[in-house]
Structure formats: C-alpha cells, structure tokens
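Hey team,

Filing this mostly as a record. A colleague (T.K.) asked me to run one chain through the structure pipeline before their review meeting, and I want the input and output archived in the tracker in case anyone asks later how it was produced. No errors, nothing strange. Just documentation.

Input sequence:
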Amino acid sequence: MRSQWRDGDRIRQVEVTPLGSGRFRVVVDGSELELDAAPLGGGRWRLAQDGVPTLAEIGAADDRRFVRLGTLDFVLTRERSAGARKPEGGAGGGLEAPMPGVITRVMVAAGDTVTKGQPLVALEAMKMEHLIRAPRDGRVTTLPVKAGEMVQSGVALVEIGD
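Output structure:
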C-alpha cells in the first residue's frame, strides 16, 4: 500500500508491504526497513526491528494520524494528489477499518439497501466508538465482519454496490 503523509512541512512517501506472519517491509522516502508488528489493543503495537522492540501508539481522526514511537510524537496528515477527491468507499465500494479495533455493532446485513450517511458498523478503537457510515446510496453486497471481531487497519468491513 502506497500513501503520502504530511509531516510538518515535509511530504513523506510511504509504502507498506505485508510479508506474512506479522512482518512488514516499510519504505519511507526511499529508506527501507523490515518490522515485526504485533497488536497490543487500544491502538498500541509492539514493533520490532532486528529483535529490538519499540512501543507504537496510533490514533486517528479523519485523515490525521497521531503516532507515538517510543518517546517520539508525530501528527501526520494523509495527502491527496491535486484534483483527487476523498474516496467514497474505494473503487469497488468497499469501506475499510480506519485503524485497528473491535467491531462492537453491525447495523446492516448483506442485501440491505442503505442510504448515504446511514451507520453500517461500529468500531471501538482508542477507547472511542467510530461509526462507519455509507458514503453513498446502494446495497450491501458483502459484510465480512461480525460483532466482537478484532480487525486491523485497512481491513474491508462492508462492500456497497449499486
């Protein structure tokens, strides 16, 4: 997954590639490293590079991420290319978890017709409940999650078709 993040006055190019078994290749502005990542819950992660652990805490609000790596704090804002608009559930109509958390409520079922803004799924993360809402009118085509399930950031929660 490639993305761009504003870090103060700088735009950072980030690419994260899952390698399996909780291992990731991370490239930031051309600098590459491999990390082991284990979720600890509540937006906390144990990251390890070459066996050396670091605690990471990640919170989110819209396109911003609040990141603490050990004793370093960052506020990152997702950058979008000029003319790009915020995606409405991705190209295929999917809605993803904005951060790691636990599904607390599922308010729709596959086949349900939904309207723009309708709550679909509730995700508890960072001791807060985040409602995932329909970005447009449509029909729920896929609903791969259930209440009580823990999900990672970027995991598909709901797919909406026409």
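Quick notes for T.K.: Confidence is low (pLDDT under 50) at residues 82-93. The chain is about 0% helix and 60% strand.
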